[in-house]
Fold each of these.
Amino acid sequence: MSATINKHQPSEKGKEVIALLFPLTHKEREESIQKYWKQYPVEGEAVLDGFHFLIQELIEERGVNDSKNKIDLPEKFVFSLIKEMEEKKIFFSYENSETFLSIPIEYQPPIFADPGKIKKIHSQVLINNKKQKSIFDLPENLDDTVTLKCKEICQTAKSSFDQVRDALSVMRQTQQILKDYNNVGLDVDMKDIKDARDLLIKEKKNYKNHSRKIAEGWLYISEVFQAYFKDILILQIYPTYLSKLLASRESNYPVERYLLKIAQSDFNFSVPEFKPTELQLQHGKTRVSLANEYRALIQITIDRLECRYRKRKLMAQLKEKGSESKVIKSLVKISEIDPIDIRTHILIAKLFGKYSLITRNHQNRTIMKEQALKYCEKAFSRIDEYLDIQDIQNTRQRDQQRAGFVKTISSIRIPLIKNR
């Protein structure tokens, strides 16, 4: 059977695992990847990169010789791999884990020593995930009841988001009045101050009430997405809802333009027909290929928004004095998924830079500085791409934004270079 598997760009840790496996025999590779998993249980993504490498190598071997090697890993290990795949949504450019695993399972002769065992483990992981995650007792397949409830929740979210934006606007205006009052020499009427304080209290309450409604609806929408992410309707509304959730949480600083543009858009409940034009037919396009391209574009947006969602949670952990090393490790993974978000690179550089200044170990200090400078360079190199997705057309505004990022990155980079 002639088949190939999608090429995959491994994570930084994944590259280390692949480099470890590359010179070994197949049997040694299986032993080595299990040993790495036991030694570094938190590096599940890197182990998945190694697993993809094993499959890819065997398929390529079959293409050039009659290799009899097969993947024969313990059930516990395979279960952990598939579980990690599902939890992190790492499907190696395939639609889901089932589609990815079908390549080695259906290959003839099979890549797995026992394809039936792999199918059984995969099914068990999916069943377990559904039991653990299900709060709303969703049906096996998307039905009209679920769709209708999604529409109702989305309509509430749209209305609440509009209220949130209005409340934030009034809150900032009243805060400016109170700020002016505190500045010496400014003549502000005391009645204006009282009115501003009363209005601020009222709008804060309004803001919290409506942002809470969006958060409550998110519980249902996120579970529906987990259950029916193959459905294009659900795929369409999910990023719009997530963007409204993220934008509604930002009360202290202006919302990122990229995020705000998505959040201000309406929910799309119309599924395209994917009917190819004459020109598209001439280029070999079909309904299926057009649908896949459409899904891929939406998935890029979802990945970016989910990275911002995860990053916000990590910032909350830092604020609560959580483990900075774990936060950095998570941020590095986020930066690999969404390399255009230079704010993530800047944050990583800042944290590495902070560590380099306080650690007493010379070797660790050198490593931390190198990492900080590395992420400064990554941020520098992606400034224009980041500004592109912000859709800043005005040249002056774009130059101001670029200058601001250069200044921020330089404030991290220059002290590190001076202290070398």
Amino acid sequence: MIILLYIMMFFGGIHQLEYHDLNVFNNLYRYYLEGGYNMVNNARTVSPKDFGAVGNGIADDTKAFKNMFASGAKRFYITQGTYMINQELKVPTGSYIYGEDIDNTILKNGTKQPVYAATLNFLNCSNATIYNLTLDGNIDNVPGDINQGVLNMRIQNATNIIVRNVRFANNKYLGCNLVNSKNVTYDSCYFDNIDSGINGTNGTTTDGVTITNCVFDGHDYSEPIALLNAKNIYVTNCTMKNKIYGHAMAFLGCQNVQVKNCSIYNCTKTFYLTSSKNVRNQGITIADCTFEACESGEIANSDNVKISNCTFQDSIITIDNSKNVEFSDSKFIAKSLPCMIAFAGSISRDIKFTSNTIDNTSGLNYGNSFLSVYNVIISNITFKSNKFINAILYNRSFVPGSSIIFSCNYDQNGKLYTVYKPYVKNVNYGC
């Protein structure tokens, strides 16, 4: 602060500063904070170019980045350029990494990166933020497939990590591998031409994942989001689109998952909910989402699943060995393909359908049915206040031992719809 007072005095004293002088002072002060020493965070700001990085997309800048991260600084400002990285870079605890421009500040995997290495590795790291840059997997020159390759990022045994406005691009393997970490946030990130976006298949103790305002677009296989045995997961305002194979989201053996206000388009499957390592999914909430042009989805070995105010178009959702599942205030639209619920595998029980619209105007559902039951008992299945448009409940007989309660449901003309089948109990008083 004494230095700043001397600067002010140089321009004629504190009380005599003119507008032009103030501009100079502000620029000097900004340089003081950004370029040299940050009083608030008590940390120097350094750049890879301070350590010899070139950033021309040809030179190997690995050593410069390693020296930068080993310098003891905590703030790392990466100017525009394409930096070729040929070894994994370990991010220090407490780091704040920020790029000049997300489109033109690029860390790109080099051809010498070993298999399973990550461009950036937040290993045993805490209280770190990365912001405003691109991690490019160099898909045309770095080998990989759905089973192995080089990663754009790994977050492992880490705590309090923020990934904001980062583009993960061009990787045949993983965008970000998330393993055994706590309180990790992905905010306003882009996953372009990435096989699997955020993948936690190797983790068992991840707790606290927030994924918000992110876009996952393109590539062939795997899932934009796949987490195993994790808990307290929040996915909001995200878009998943154009996945030729795989699910938009996969949660296996997870606890307390909340997905809200997401748009899923042209993915082979909507979601995959099932167990992992003998742990069933518990407490999955999906609300205010749109699933369009996704052929199927699955709820298996999962308990306490609530799906509300969602739109499913051209999707068949299979339910297997699950209980306490509820669909409410949602739409099932068969526009170009069937849109149905299928029961398969082992017995499912306590499944509710409340205030939904089943729109089979196209007549594409098999036998115009909403349900498809593959030789399995379904127990305590409740339909209440649903609207069936050119659709029936089921065009075959239910398996003996099944129990379905059918209450106050209507057809497209507003007429009370009653199902006369064995194992179906119509409860229409008070409708």
Amino acid sequence: MNQDPKEVIRNSLLRVYEVLKFTPEEAKKALDEFMGLIQVSIMTELLNGLSEAEIKSLGEEFAKKSPAEQQKQAESVLKSHYSQEEIVKKISGATKPVVQEYFAYLKSRGNKEVDRILAEVS
């Protein structure tokens, strides 16, 4: 059974935060911030293929739409520029350096248990 890579990373980070004695609130905040960085990285990579006018138009349109409508429109625009394979490749390419850098930061704390947990998912 293959687990979703996002869930594997999430669960590993929760274990790391527990080892580092984060409170549940601190762990949730740290995980939310990390996932936010990933989202920004992904969106930046995907938007790089759009023209300035397309990005401006999307921004104006998004302001008028519900989150579900925004999601649908974003998928439509991306599919008009990229194949599904290209989207997956861009997401992976945008995510990998963020994860590696964050893991390196966590490993720099010198905790052997943290190193072991992160080695399981690296």
